[in-house]
Amino acid sequence: MSASFSNQITAVAYCRTPYKQKFGIPRQPGLVDVHGYVELTGPFNDPDSVRGLEQYSHLWLLFCFHENLAQGWKTTVRPPRLGGNEKLGVFATRSTFRPNGIGQSVVKLHGIVRRGGKICLEISGMDLLDGTPIIDIKPYIPFSDAIPDAIGGMAQEAPVQYPVHFCSEAEAQVARYGARPQSPNLRALIEGVLAQDPRPAYKKAKDDAKLYQVALYDLDIFWQIGPKGIEVLELKPGM
Ligand code: SAM
């Protein structure tokens, strides 16, 4: 069997999400109620290519971790879930540094619309950076894709969720920015993202007074670890 197989792949679509930087994006899909869309491109932007897709409630998105491709890959990785100390084989993890840089996420399909001549699949639950190239779209087929008694190794359970509090200034800001059409569902998105505690695993092990920032929509959200969990301190227009 030749080990020299290679294949040229091309984006069939691009994913548009509120996640403007990698830090803060949930580690897997379905953890945060986040909405966005997949915009078909080139010859794939054809109504025939999605004919019948509306009969499915969920889709598999196959994509490229395009922002990590330049760093290449290693045979072992340090999964954040194991505290960043223990090494596992890259194929035993969902690491974003992979031989072909391919990710897969199941997302909920809300609708198929046309916007400015582009076919857009309205989705939710994705764990993708804004602008991620999509290399394939497949329907989720419950009878074969859902395996309730499957063993999930180190990732058997969803990550722990932390309480999220807004200081009074951030309360007023999230009300103001959340009322804008360009940042819908803002409060729920901030709560969902920060409840995952996006910090690197080694930071969680000790007291941490650092000020953190995540970029959602066109905003920078500043937060830190407080006595009662995650404290949102300020929202302001992104740099
Ligand atoms: N569900 C997919 C899988 O299992 O293949 C992705 C899991 S991976 C752990 C999820 C992380 O990928 C996100 O938290 C984010 O940091 C990173 N990510 C998302 N889109 C990316 C992109 N376009 N380039 C590089 N990293 C990306």
From TrEMBL:
It holds the Pfam family TrmO_C. Residues 9-149 form the TsaA-like domain. Gene3D superfamilies: YaeB-like. CDD domains: UPF0066. It comes from the Bacteria. Keywords: S-adenosyl-L-methionine. Belongs to the tRNA methyltransferase O family. This is tRNA (N6-threonylcarbamoyladenosine(37)-N6)-methyltransferase TrmO. The gene is tsaA.
